[in-house]
Each structure stands twice: as C-alpha cells, then as structure tokens.
Write a structure and sequence with these properties.
The complex is a heterodimer of chains A (363) and B (297). Chain A is of the alpha+beta class and 363 residues long. Chain A is 25% helix and 34% strand. Chain A folds into 2 domains: 226 residues, Rossmann fold (3-Layer(aba) Sandwich), CATH 3.40.50.300; 115 residues, OB fold (Dihydrolipoamide Acetyltransferase, E2P) (Beta Barrel). Chain B has a two-stranded antiparallel sheet with strand order 1-2. Classes of the chains: A alpha+beta (363), B mainly alpha (297).
C-alpha cells in the first residue's frame, strides 16, 4: 500500500508558481528525499504535506485518505523545522516531551521516551538547558528529536542536518537511518545536499523550478540521469560537460566535433542521434569515467595539466584539452606538474548526450 | 621619546575635558527632569507660609505631615485654605483605582486578541493596522464634543461607564500597536511546530503566543493603567460629582480663593506613587518593550 500519494499538486504564491504539477508516491516504511537547489519548491511541497500551506490544486493522500483540507494537527505527521522552532520557554527535556504531553501520554512513558531520544541524539548533558543556551547544531538535534519522539504516520525532515559540522552530520545521519530502518518509519527528507540524499534515501525526488526532474533510486539517478539538470546536480564532483556539433562519418559512426578535438561516440543510440546530426549537443562524462592513457591508444586525446588536487586516497586532475576543461578523478594519487602533457581516454560505456535546449537526454 | 610623552599628556588632558563636559551635561539634564519631582515631593512637607517666602527653597525648613493629614480630611494644621470636603481625596483614590484597573483589563482583553490577529492574519492588509495607529495621532479633544452628546443621549454621563468607555477609545490603539509588535516577533514556524504537534489555534494563542509576548503585554497594561490614572480631560468633562478621579480632586486645590500649595503637592505626591512603583517593578519589561515591540510598530 502506498503511504503517501501526491497527485498533480500545484502551489502558487500570488503570481509565483512555487510548485508545478508534482506527482509521486511513496511506499510504507520508505525513506524518500526531495532534493534541489534553493527555491526549487521542495520546502513548499513538504509544508503542503504537513498541512502548513494550502494546496492550490491537486490532491495529497496519506494512508489512502485525502488530506487536502485536514488541519496540520489532525494529520498525524511529525515535522522537524530547519529553523528549529524550539519553544524558548521550555528546557530541552521540556521541548522533547511537549508533543507527547499534547497527545495525552503520561508521566513514566514520557520520561522513558525522552531519555531514549536524549541518548540517541547525544543530548543528555543538555536536558535541563533552554534553547538559547545551546549552539545551532545542538538546537538542530533537539528539533530532530522532537519530531522523532512521537509515533507519527509520516516524518517530515526539513534540512535537519544543515547546521551541523561535517563530523556530526555523518554521525547523526547514520543514527537517523538506523532508527528509520529498525522502527520501519516512513520519512521524507528535504535537503539541498545531494550527497546526503544519495547516502540516506531509498528513492529520491529531484526538483527544479517547481517541477520534478526525476524520481528514482540513488543508483538510477546517478547511472541514468533523465536530463541535463539531474546529470549536473547529482554526483560529486559534478559531471564534465562538453559542447560540440554532432557529425556522422562515412562509416556511419557518430562523432562530436568540439573546438579542436573530435570525440568518437559509441555505436549505441543511433536512431535518436540521427536527427541531431549537424546540430549542437552536449556530452557529459563523470570524472570517474575518464582515465589516463598511453599516447598511442585509439581515442586518446591530449591535454595539459591545469591543476592537480591531492586528496589522500584519490586526486583530482584538471586538464585543459584544447580549450575544453576536463576534471578527472584518479584513484592512485601521484603528483602531476602543472603544464605537463598527458593523454586521456573517455570510458565510452559511460557517456551521456543531451539536447542543449531542452536538456533531454539523448544517450 | 619626549615627544611621545607630550602627546600622551595632551591626549589625557583632552580626555579629561570630554569627561567633565559629559558630567556637566548629565547634571543639567537631571536637574531639568528632577526639579519638578523634588519640588512636588519637597513642597508636600512644607507649611503653607513657606511657599510665600521671598527666597524660595527646594526643601522644607520645618518638615510637616500636616498637608497629608489635612488632604485626607484629618485635623488641619491651620495653614491651609482648606476648601476640600472631607473624604474627597479618599473617593478620588478609590475612583481612580477602580477606573484604571477596569479600563486596563478591558483594554487588554480586547487589545491582546486584536493585535494577535492583526499580526498573524493581517486582516485588511496594512490599512487597518495603520488606521488604528493613526487614531493615536488625533488630539483627544476632537472626540470630546461628539462623545459628550453620545454619552448624554445614552444617559451615562457622570457614571463609571462613561470613563470606562472613553478611556478605552484612546488606550486601545496604543496597546494594540505595542502588543502587535511583540506577536510579530514570535517566529511563525514556532507556532506551526506547535500546531503540527497537535495544538489548536486557540491553544497556540493561549499557551505559546501570550506567554512569549508577556513583556509586551506587561508594558501595554502599564501604559493603559497610567493613561487612565493620569487622565484629566475626559474626567472633567464627562463627570460631575458622582465620579471623582484623582486628577479632578487635584484640580480642586487650585481655587478662586488661592492655591492650597501644601495639600496640592501632597496629593500630587500620592498620585505619582502608582506610576513610580509600576515603573520600578516593570523596568525590565519596559526597556525590552520600548526597544523591541514599540519601535517595530
């Protein structure tokens, strides 16, 4: 059974169309992330699910019940706010027990739950402090705890890790994921951090300008991006994009003619590509799928080292290939002199081609 | 080296001059503000004849409680002109207290929900808020004539009701204006969090918004009380003998036969007490209130 279904949901703020025709469904006990750049409509979508914003049109179903007009407090959803929204006049423990008291839980049960959340989020030392005495990261953990403490049908987390330092972020991510898996919680996470989404989610909704760009598993988004936006947004470091004119050789193979280099393209996807012959297209290749090669390897092209970043296990090599800047991820890090001449090779099983106007993926 | 010391000394003497100027300025400002207070309070302990001394003094030469005793209608010390009826002052205090307390409660009972709704729902856009604020700019005197005829028609002149209602008219805009700023300071997401947690709008209002805006509510109540306590114009026009507020009683000491200075200042000292006490007890809220709430508007 589907936990939550969004059908063609729109949200307008006056003239501004924040969310445009969003539809997706999530299964029970699933962890879904909504990612996208600022202003893509992800928070508005979350707030509509929570009942804090009216829906301009479309419908939202939670546990098979249409909840468009059900008030936030009757929806059985828990929400962690990015701005924390902690009650300033209550202590940490008071903030955590508040949602339980409102729902009619009694003394011992409350203490037990509060204590387990405090230890889970490493907040025991702060339980008698008020929010003003805590740092941003600590407040954020309390906000997260307040959302997780009560048994809701659906948990909504709005950027719950944004104010934590890198170490805490990774630590808390694993803890939250563990609670979610052990207790079978249905969670929607809103984040601008695609790595966070990839690391935590069963499936991801990628949004841009109020519309869903792609909805799929982390692997699908990474391996098979639906369009130029998803290809660019998902993956760290980002994909290399090279613009050129598509041509066809006498032998029937496709080639991409850039400023000075000609890249031979794989034989796949012939039909769709034929209509793009002599037109501008964009080729994408991830830094992981470029390797250094010997000069005489077929398809190898020359580049000059623009910069090299050493990062321990791996290194990032930026090559200037006749005017095209290409980033390469190298597994075995050695040192490369700026200005040195190297040869590299694209892994043509991992090449992506896009229409530059529509962003549609061609290959 | 010598040069360095010289400039150092110069700088130091420059600093001393600045400090002296600062203290002189403080003394002048304090003198201006404190003179009336000292005059009233000191004068209340003087004998009537002392007010006519050719070299007037700030402090009484022979301090006496006689003015206070005679103001309350006790044995006169023989120095006053004494044209107030016995018990007038007691009635003045009682009436003023009753009117100020009731008006404050009525004002806040209306102002708190009204300002919350203005802050959160913005009915009528910015226009209504501005309209309410603009009433503050009206001189109260232009309301007097129409109100007089309305109250006369309704038949409530010279009753407590006439002052409850007329004070409310001018307390409300100010109190709404102050508390509105405080409600606007409460983050919207805080209230939304409580609603997601299961509170209704009414419980959010009573359990979250009101407690968080308590500084503003305290300040507004204080002002409402003091406005009412000090108010003279409405009281003198809308009432006659049935209702006698303290400022009216105070006015009576300035008679055609002369001014009863000693009693006047004694009553004035008494009249000033509630304001001073409230200001001391609520100092914390007032500073916060005037800097946060009121400035925002």
């Amino acid at each position: 059974m589907d936990k939550l279904i969004l059908e063609n949901v729109y949200k307008n703020y006056g003239e501004v169309k924040a969310v445009r025709g969003v539809s997706f469904s999530m299964k029970d006990k699933e962890f879904i992330s909504i990612v996208g750049p600022s202003g893509c409509g992800k928070s508005s979508t979350l707030r509509m699910i929570a009942g804090l914003e009216d829906i301009t049109s479309g419908s939202i179903l939670l546990d098979s019940e249409k909840i468009n007009h059900i008030r936030a407090r009757d929806r059985d959803v828990a929400l962690a706010f990015e701005s924390y929204a902690l009650y300033p006049h209550l202590t940490v423990a008071g903030n955590l027990s508040f949602p339980l008291e409102v729902r009619g839980f009694k003394g011992e049960e409350i203490t037990e739950k509060v204590n387990s959340i405090l230890s889970l989020l490493d907040l025991e030392a702060y339980m008698n402090m008020t929010p003003t005495e805590l740092s941003g990261g600590e407040q954020q953990r309390v906000a997260l705890g307040r959302a997780l403490i009560r048994g809701a049908s659906l948990y909504l987390l709005d950027e719950p890790f944004s104010h934590l330092d890198a170490q805490q972020k990774i630590d808390l991510r694993t803890r939250v994921l563990r609670i979610q898996k052990l207790n079978g919680l249905s969670v929607i996470l809103v984040t601008h951090d695609q790595l966070e989404a990839l690391a935590m989610s069963d499936r991801i909704v990628v949004m841009n300008e109020g519309e869903i760009q792609q909805f799929g598993t982390p692997e699908e988004l990474y391996e098979e991006p639906a369009n130029l936006f998803v290809a660019d947004f998902i993956g760290e470091p980002p994909m290399n994009f090279i613009e050129g004119i598509l041509t066809r050789t006498d032998g029937g193979r496709h080639r991409l003619n850039c400023k000075e280099i000609r890249f031979p393209l794989p034989k796949r996807g012939g039909e769709k590509l034929s209509s793009y012959v002599d037109r501008k297209i964009i080729m994408g290749v991830r830094p992981q799928h470029i390797s250094l090669a010997a000069k005489d390897m077929p398809g190898a092209f020359e580049g000059v080292v623009f910069s090299y970043e050493y990062q321990g296990e791996m290194g990032y090599l930026s090559l200037d290939c006749s005017g095209e800047r290409v980033l390469i991820e190298l597994k075995h890090a050695t040192h490369y002199e700026t200005g040195a001449r190297l040869w590299c090779l694209f892994d043509d099983t991992h090449l992506y081609l896009f229409d530059p106007d529509t962003g549609e993926r061609l290959l | 080296m010598a040069k360095v010391i010289q400039t150092d000394e110069k700088r130091r003497s420059g600093r001393t001059i600045v400090r002296v100027i600062r203290y002189v300025a403080i003394v002048i400002i304090l003198a201006v503000f404190l003179f009336p207070v000292v005059f009233i309070f000191g004068g209340s302990f003087k004998t009537q004849s002392e007010f006519y001394d050719v070299a007037p003094s700030l402090f009484p030469k022979e301090p006496t409680l006689g003015n206070y005793i005679s103001a309350f209608g006790g044995e006169k010390t023989g120095t006053t002109t004494g044209f107030t009826a016995k018990g007038r002052l007691t009635k003045g205090i009682k009436d003023s207290l009753l009117i100020s307390v009731v008006v404050t409660m009525l004002t806040m009972a209306i102002a708190i929900p009204a300002s919350y709704s203005l802050a959160r729902y913005k009915p009528g856009g910015d226009q209504i808020s501005f309209f309410i604020l603009s009433i503050l700019f009206l001189p109260p005197v232009i309301g007097v004539l129409p109100l007089f005829f309305i109250f006369k028609t309704v038949g409530i002149l010279d009753t407590y009701w006439v002052l409850f209602i007329s004070h409310l008219f001018f307390d409300l805009p100010f109190c709404i204006w102050i508390t509105k700023g405080f409600f606007e300071d409460i983050p919207l997401e805080l209230e939304q969090a409580v609603m997601v947690d299961g509170f209704s709008r009414f419980r959010v209002f009573f359990k979250i918004a009101v407690p968080l805006a308590k500084s503003g509510i305290a300040v507004a109540s204080l002002f409402a009380f003091i406005f009412s306590w000090n108010e003279l114009m409405f009281s003198s026009i809308f009432t006659r003998s049935n209702v006698q507020t303290l400022p009216l009683v105070l006015q009576d000491y300035i008679g055609s036969a002369g001014i009863s200075w000693g009693e006047l200042l004694a009553v004035a000292s008494i009249a000033a007490i509630p304001g001073i006490l409230l200001a001391i007890f609520m100092q914390r809220y007032i500073v916060r209130g005037l800097t946060f709430g009121a400035v925002k508007g």
